[in-house]
Amino acid sequence: MGHLPKLIEDLALILMAGAAVTLLFRKIKQPLVLGYIIAGFLVGPHFKLTPTVADAANVKTLAEIGVIFLLFSLGLEFSFKKLMRVGGSASITAMVEIIFITIAGYMLGKTMGWSTMDSLFLGGMLASSSTTIIIRAFDELGLKSKKFASIVFGVLVVEDIVVILLMVLLSTVAVTQQFEGTQILLTISKLVFFLALWFITGIYLLPTFLKKAKKLMDDEAILITSIGLCLGMVLLATQVGFSAELGAFIMGSIIAETTYAEKVEHIIKPVKDLFGAVFFVSVGMMIDPEAILEYKWMVLAVTLLTLFGKLFSTTIGALLSGQPLKQSVQVGMSMAQIGEFAFIVATLGLSLGVISEFLFPVAVGASAITTFTTPYLIKLSEPAYNYLNRVLPDKWLQRINRYSSGAQSIKAESTWKMVFNAYARICIINGVIILGIMLLSIRFLHPFLEMTIENSTLTSIVSLSISLIIASPFIWAFMTRKPDNMAYREMWLDDKYNHGPLVVMEILRIILGLFIIGFWIENYFSPLVVTFIAVPVVIAVYYLFSKRIQKFYRRLEGRFITNLNERELVRRGSETRNADVMSMEGIRQDMIPWDAHMVDLVVPQNASYLAKKLEDLAWRERFGINIVYIKRGEQLIPAPGKTEMLLPFDEIGIIATDEQVTQFVKLFDSKTIPSSQTTNINDIALQKIVVDEHTKLKGHTIRSSAIREVTDGLVVGIERNNKRMLNPESTTHFEWGDVIWIVGNWRKIQQFKAQKVV
């Protein structure tokens, strides 16, 4: 028998140990990550009773591949759209928690006498919580339908992207050994620029390529192509000075916006699981029980900081974001653990040789303890709130309630804000592309032409002309492209006093665009030539060919928007509606001030209430809930009437408080869909109508106003004298100044508002 390579022997040992521990941990319902770490310890050099891995270097290489695939899979699940949909509450909560715990981790390290790099990496390790552990705990405790759960999921999304950025910053600081604010700011700017450039370029090119090759894309081709793209971006990222992990994450997030996202995620999962298991086993191999005992006080200190520091900071962050005290405490006590990213950050520090070896066992020990405490903390969150509610002074509670009510006041997004955001999107997207073309021209195109053209002036002219022609559509858009939305048109036509600020923004764009062109040309010619010859010539050429440039840009923009929205459009089966109208996700976010939220339920097959009229069920009267829609296969029934019946496997959306949901679900007897999932129903929206002299609603009841019939909508709330009525009775009369919130067919609601009649 031939001699087996050590790599195969080691891999066999790792996977056999991993398989045994995996089965055991599934049996006792514990996180598999901990199982892999224990398996690594069993085959590592510090445990003598079992066979030991022979060549740790080979395992390290496989572990590095595992990290790449873990980050790639995280990108597939992430998507930048998902980040944009994260509510303000989750974003504020996450940033407060991350800033606090990172600084606290650094200070703890310095207090214990650690080096600056050890302290910095400790702060980075504490920055993220464990998505796996939290989801498992929520599943076991049946909490996914609770309102605070959606905030927790949003915080986890923000943490993922921030930790990726922290890894890049830490690796940069570790390599350069420079801690100056200017250097860090430059690194952040460079990172943001390349993130935007890769994303924009990837969204334009990748979906187009995949569509062209659609007929050739079987499972094997998808697997090979996706891995090739992942490793290609890893190579590109390392070439420009960033980490391999960042490249893998970026490519995953780009593919996440294509129609192949679910397919790639499904096909790549076995590969990710295999190499991910190897990575976590390699983490376990580095565990030294003697080191953990030696540094037990450090482990205890980091554990206590994680438990109390993350609990405190997350709770404060949720309060600052406008959440009530109860939800804030629940969010805080759900996030008090160290996530899987801590091992990746620690491994990064060890591979760079910038952190001490004791930091790893400290992280492992703290992670193990906080993993087991998480479910108990979540269970104790409501008793903890009840205790705080009893002991805190009434003045404090009143101030918290007033702040929460004020911070969460329901307001439609202002027209000015929408217009400003539209201008910002145009300038940022096109500005990034222009800067990317400029850098490519200066650093690659011009040096290449210098090797082929002897005349330096001619080289500059050719290089500049080629790059400006390529950039011309984006320069035109940056300087003259107007926002293509209803808000801009309304502002321009509604009030002549809006003309001044809008014109100022247009002038500022043009000036900034001219400055960019001048700066670009100045890299090739003197300022005198730039001012009196080059810039005027460029402006004249752009003016003469403006229609062609505009037409070409709109083709590019159309392709980009199509690629960006294609996955969502395919899933919806219809065109995207006006972005000015709130989506289902918008309904979820904007019902928060009412202490209510959207919950999606599926009608069970053998429910006792099947084929009964909603009128007879009287769920609104009994539980206070409103059924917003019924989805039956491809059929959508918005604001179902009293004669409507429920059938097996119908999907329904209800608006209710946590208490109402708890009581209702007992009767409904259905599996609740995780609130992190979005119900993509194109025609349902949340909008407001003000009772004034135009609407002629004053004095009418909800029933007599015929709002339901005209808009296919439900009145889910009324704001009156700074007070809110959730799910008001149909006999409620409208009064002057009432703000009526309706969930229903957005088109019909818009028509109703435009007609200004009952």
Structural summary, described in words:
The protein is of the alpha+beta class and 758 residues long. The chain has three domains: 6-380, Na+/H+ antiporter like fold, CATH 1.20.1530; 415-571, no CATH class; 584-755, Alpha-Beta Plaits (2-Layer Sandwich). It has 30 helices and eight strands. The strands form two sheets. The protein has a four-stranded antiparallel β-sheet with strand order 1-4-2-3. A four-stranded antiparallel β-sheet has the order 5-8-6-7.
Features:
758 residues; Na+/H+ antiporter like fold; Alpha-Beta Plaits; 3 domains; 30 helices
Secondary structure: elements and pairs:
Elements (H helix, E strand, L loop, with lengths): L5 H22 L4 H11 L13 H23 L1 H6 L2 H24 L4 H10 L5 H11 L5 H30 L4 H32 L6 H21 L4 H12 L5 H25 L3 H6 L1 H25 L4 H10 L6 H12 L6 H33 L2 H14 L7 H38 L3 H25 L5 H9 L4 H24 L4 H18 L1 H27 L11 H7 L6 E6 L11 H4 L1 H5 L2 E7 L2 E4 L12 E6 L1 H11 L15 E7 L16 H5 L2 E7 L2 E4 L12 E7 H10 L3
Antiparallel strand pairs: 1-4, 2-3, 2-4, 5-8, 6-7, 6-8
Helix pairs in contact: 1-2, 2-12, 3-11, 3-12, 5-6, 5-8, 5-14, 6-8, 6-16, 7-17, 8-9, 8-15, 8-16, 9-11, 9-19, 9-24, 10-11, 10-12, 14-15, 14-17, 15-17, 16-17, 19-20, 19-21, 20-22, 20-24, 22-23
Number of helices: 30
- Give the DSSP E fraction (strand runs of 2 or more residues): 5-15%
Q: Note the gap between the termini.
A: 89 Å
The order of strands across the largest sheet is 1-4-2-3
Portion in helices:
55-70%
The CATH architecture of the largest domain comes to Up-down Bundle
Radius of gyration: 29 Å
